[in-house]
Amino acid sequence: MRKAATTNNRRDIEIANASAATAASTRLPSTVSGYERIRVVGKGSFGSAILYRRKADDSLVVIKEINMHELSTAERQLSLNEVSLLSSMDHPHIISYYDSFEEDGILMIEMEYADGG
User: Fold this and answer.
1) Which CATH architecture fits 27-112?
2) Contacts with 79 (C-beta within 8 Å, 6 or more apart), sequence order
3) What is the predicted pLDDT for the residue at 80?
4) Taxonomically, which superkingdom (predicted)?
């Protein structure tokens, strides 16, 4: 019985070390091509919402950054469902969806910036 517990502990440590190495190698990018990062405006369970200035037209946008490497299969599907839902919505009282793209395993969801919330 003791040997099995030791083997399980060793396996848990190996898994934890592998997870830490993966997390370290999949940090969120400090820059996004074509955008100037300004500040974090929010954080959620899947990622962060960052205020950016779009260089092409100098407009302020929020990009929700979701590290897909750190999510389970179900959570990745929820994130992709969010993109699909946001892209189908068009209402004056709902934040506008502009675009989504992926950079280095990070799902970027570009949305309208609403100053003050």
Assistant:
1) 2-Layer Sandwich (3.30)
2) 46, 66, 68, 71, 107
3) 96
4) Eukaryota
